[in-house]
Write a structure and sequence with these properties.
The chain has 7 helices and 8 strands. With about 220 residues, the chain is an alpha+beta fold. Strand 2 and strand 3 form a beta hairpin.
């Protein structure tokens, strides 16, 4: 096992740039799908997961512009619905956020999860429950999560166990649903990633309020 050995007694000085949180970035970037417009995201970490989700959005038709080393502008106005195959998601653990974002915008999603058909203990059960409560039908077919809804309706959803991923994913799907969605037993104790995620969605809701009845 590797160890950090720290010898104290010396004054610390200098500057360190702290990048944004990975868990926030890999949820906020897919959420740009919901905007259907240009979204600028600053202070994103320069890690492989972020690059992978950017490449997936680019494949889906988004225009991604690098503003500087840690700022991107994503224009999702021309994204059209299409399935997201395993080749795109195989190295991206948080690919399930694409389900909530695509379902929210297009009322349907077909996304492969890493691991194909081998789900082990079915870690997305809470996600599926939340989507069902919003009015979506969800099936898992040959390693693809297929979700469809005529319309999404806000609901009161209780999470059987605390799950960061399921909380965020249900929030993504609920942003453009009609009515109020309440998530109980949500992962609010993971404060920073969740509140950053929620604050971003509130902005999207305000942008669409009154202009999109989401029928």
């Amino acid at each position: 096992m590797e160890n950090f050995v720290i010898k104290g007694g010396r004054e610390l000085f200098g500057k360190v740039n702290i990048s944004g949180a990975k868990n926030a970035a890999v949820a906020i970037i897919p959420a740009a799908i919901l905007a259907g417009d240009k979204v600028r995201i600053e202070n994103i970490p320069q890690i492989s997961d972020v690059q992978l989700i950017i490449e997936i959005l680019d494949d889906l038709g988004a225009k991604v512009k690098l503003i500087n080393s840690d700022t991107i502008e994503i224009d999702t106005s021309n994204i059209t619905y299409q399935s997201v195959p395993y080749e795109m998601t195989s190295h991206f653990r948080a690919s399930y956020y694409l389900i909530g974002a695509m379902l929210g915008r297009f009322r349907k999603a077909e996304v492969a999860l890493p691991g194909g058909c081998n789900f082990g203990v079915r870690p997305i059960d809470l996600h599926v429950k939340g989507f069902n409560m919003l009015g979506a039908d969800v099936d898992i077919i040959d390693g693809m999560v297929v979700a469809k809804a005529d319309k999404l309706i806000g609901a009161s959803i209780y999470m059987d166990t605390v799950s960061v991923g399921a909380t965020i994913n249900v929030m993504l799907a609920a942003v453009l649903a009609r009515g109020l969605t309440i998530i109980e037993n949500a992962a609010k104790e993971y404060a920073k990633a969740i509140w950053e995620r929620e604050g971003y969605e509130v902005k999207l809701v305000s942008k669409n309020e009154g202009g999109n009845k989401n029928d």
